[in-house]
Amino acid sequence: MTIKLAQAVPWTPHPRAATSDSRAGSQFVSQANGTRSCCGGWQFEFTGVTPGHRYRIAVDAVLKDVDLPSDAVACLAIWGKVAPDFSRLGMSFFWDYICATASGSEMQRFSGTFIAPEACDTVTIRTTLRWTSRGTVNWSLPELQDLGETAPRPPVRVAVVTGQEGDARASRPTLAEGIDFYAGLTERACEKHGAHLIALPEIGPQWHMPEHAFDKATPVPGPVTDRFAEIARRHDATIVVGLHEREGDAVFNSAVVIDAGGHIAGTYHKVHLASFEAFSGVSPGDDFPVWETRVGRIGCNICMDSSAAESSRMVGLNGGDFLVLPIMGDHRASVWHKGNPVLDEGRWQAIMRTRAMDNQLTMVVARNNSTASCIIDRSGEILAYNDGTADMIVADVTLDDDYRKWNGGCFRQVNWRQRRPGRYGAFVHPAPEALTKLTRGIQTP
After folding, report:
1. pLDDT in tens, 253-310
2. Which of 22, 126, 166, 278 is the most buried (most CB within 10 A)?
């Protein structure tokens, strides 16, 4: 079928909110109405949509005198024919945000690639100016390109290798023993289960070595990564290895992403060090990179990073599909009194499921003691969980999942597009008075 523009008309949820709209050829203007309740714009109805086809949609906008453009200007693709006074999309339609590639600029391009749902032959592109009493937006006629049918990406088989709880705790005082232990599990994950992505625990091969991190740290590449790179090459697998890394004059708690083919895609340095690490001479990292790999985009956190909401949020914002989390434990999921920690599995699961949903990431959690290692998809579903009796867990993860909320919106897009970063100043740069409140009135018992 051929895509055709059936009509272009102004829309508004209520006459008192309507923008002032005009058209000049292929340009469509929306002007704020002088009230803070302003909400409206243009909608463009295209027919000839083929269900199951992937469409590239783009709309250009030129803004003038618009307050906080990232808030005030929005664009939706609504899959169906929509009345121009209908705003409660509810369960009537599937719909997607078309996101801007250059937020905050006077010129913005809204673009994205979307799959037309079943039984749909029409898409309505709705442009919106809202939440501002002033300003004008000049919209271009939307561009739609039919990219045809696209085969979904195959599921990724993920394995977390730890050993059973008793084996995980067993003594391995030398680096060679630690490497052999985890390499054997990794080999079996590949040979028996056909795993594409394998995650090891925090500093796994060095975990039981009694030396200080300064003495047991190894370079990258080095003896640890060389062994796992060889396994990655033979099995066309991606492996994430936790280790203490020596880099020149610094030592880091690291997670090394070894891609299929055996090359190192990247190394993550733990940003938020545990209290005992913070005064040990170990250095912290300073960013949350995400790397393209054969299985998808991978970012990492390590242990205490999980306590800071920003850690997983940054991996999500940087476009990760997977967040691999080597971890020994979580102080929020332990008994709340002095003494040896006792794992509260209910709290642990709640933490990891929340991280997955809030940041739209598949969580791949590798705990040193085996118990509570888990694989959780973006919807918060626990795909695999280790109760301590398994030496590894395995699950298939679907990346092209198309999770949608009850109201028809794309789960991932709603999660990101509803954010208002311009309002989060204290989140990024805490004010002095906020920092003072953290310690005011706290006394040692």
Report:
1. 999 999 999 999 999 999 999 999 999 999 999 999 999 999 999 999 999 999 999 9
2. 126
3-state SS, residue 241:
strand
The H or E element that residue 260 is part of is none
Q: Do both 50 and 173 map to the same domain?
A: no
Q: Residue 38 contacts by C-beta under 8 Å, 6 or more apart in sequence?
A: 17, 19, 32, 129, 130, 131, 132, 133
CB atoms within 10 A of CB 29: 18
**pTM flag (> 0.85):** yes
The answer on 145 and 166 residing in a single domain is: no
* pLDDT confidence of residue 104: 54
Residue 303 appears among annotated catalytic residues: yes
Residue 433 confidence (pLDDT): 64
Task: State yes or no: is 202 an active-site residue.
Answer: yes
209-235: buried (b, 16+ CB within 10 Å) or exposed (e) per residue?
beeebeebbbebeeebbebbbebbeeb
Average pLDDT over all residues of the chain: 93
Helix H or strand E encompassing 208: none
User: Residue 79 sits in which domain range?
Assistant: 4-151
Of the listed 120, 270, 374, 410, which one is catalytic?
270
- Residue of 202, 216, 245, 300 marked active site: 202
Q: What gap in Å lies between CA 170 and CA 163, rounded to an integer?
A: 10
168, 125: one domain: no
Which entry of 39, 190, 303, 410 is annotated as an active-site residue? 303
Give residue-wise pLDDT tens across range 106-116. 889 999 999 99
At 409, the amino acid letter reads: G
Do 36 and 72 touch, CB atoms closer than 8 A?
no
Classify the phi-psi angles of 324: left when phi > 0, otherwise alpha if psi is within -120 to 50, otherwise beta.
beta
Q: Give the residue from 160, 184, 156, 186 showing the smallest Cα distance to 172.
A: 184
pLDDT single digits (tens) 332-390: 998 778 888 889 999 999 999 999 999 999 999 999 999 999 999 999 999 999 999 99
Helical packing angle, 175-193 and 223-235, nearest 10° = 10
